[in-house]
Specification:
Number of domains: 3
CATH superfamily of the largest domain: Pseudouridine synthase I, catalytic domain, N-terminal subdomain
Radius of gyration: 20 Å
Distance between the termini: 21 Å
CATH topology of the largest domain: Alpha-Beta Plaits
CATH class of the largest domain: Alpha Beta
Oligomer: single chain
Helix content: 10-25%
Largest sheet: 9 strands, mixed
Number of helices: 7
């Protein structure tokens, strides 16, 4: 094994993205050769890495899944959550969700054990656009659509749709790249509408297609390559 940074080693072992691995290290739960690890350390051939006193080794087989998350499923790997996504998917190997999709939303989310893949999908510098189909409780007019295109002031800054398309009186499609927490719901609330249904239908070039609700499938080698 070549020398690699500790956070990448943990990511390759399926413990989350490199950013998540950094949080594990900062929490004091990671030990390298019996000593509490610090950010930026390197792992060499023959080193031992433990998390919560469990020996950690890189995974031999990488897993990449696309899942059509139903409403009510929580995007967490926390085993104390009865409705967590890991239990719902029930995959035989350890995996974790990439990013988040709030409990009241449905649609496309990826799960993997490859931290580098997760980092490629979630880090802002890689700019993977996400498309959603949204249903609101108020009539949609041209002013509403134009406001979403121009941008809506939120706490983090101005949130706007890269592309917005009206489908009917209550439904529209919107493509965004910012990915702030509950962003689309909050944008609609500022404009006086409440979201009744929200489904993510595309991430980057990957389309949810006809994948049934509650089902998952493995990504093809071509699809994985497009993201990585």
């Amino acid at each position: 094994m070549a020398t690699i940074r500790l956070n990448r080693y943990l990511a390759q072992a399926g413990l989350g993205s490199r950013r998540a691995a950094d949080e594990l290290i900062k929490s004091g739960r990671v030990f390298l050769n019996g000593q509490k690890a610090v950010l930026g350390e390197q792992v060499n051939e023959g080193d031992t890495v433990k998390v919560n006193n469990r020996l950690i080794k890189p995974l031999a087989t990488k897993v990449y899944l696309a899942y059509h998350k139903p409403v009510g499923i929580i995007c967490t790997a926390d085993p104390n959550s009865s409705d967590n996504i890991i239990k719902a998917v029930n995959y035989p190997e350890r995996i974790f969700p990439v990013g988040r999709l709030d409990v009241h939303s449905s649609g496309l989310i990826f799960l993997t054990n490859d931290g580098d893949f997760a980092n490629r999908l979630t880090h802002p510098k890689f700019w993977h656009a996400k498309e959603y189909q949204v249903k609101v409780d108020q009539l949609i007019n041209e002013q509403f659509i134009n406001s979403l295109k121009r941008g809506v002031k939120l706490q983090e800054g101005v949130a706007k749709g890269d592309k917005v398309e009206r489908l009917n009186n209550h439904e529209f499609k919107i493509t965004i790249h910012q990915g702030w927490n509950r962003q689309i719901r909050r944008m609609c609330e500022v404009l006086g509408s409440n979201v009744r249904e929200l489904k993510r239908i595309r991430v980057g070039s990957f389309d949810l297609g006809d994948l049934p609700v509650g089902k998952w499938r493995k990504l093809t080698a071509k699809e994985i390559k497009e993201f990585i």
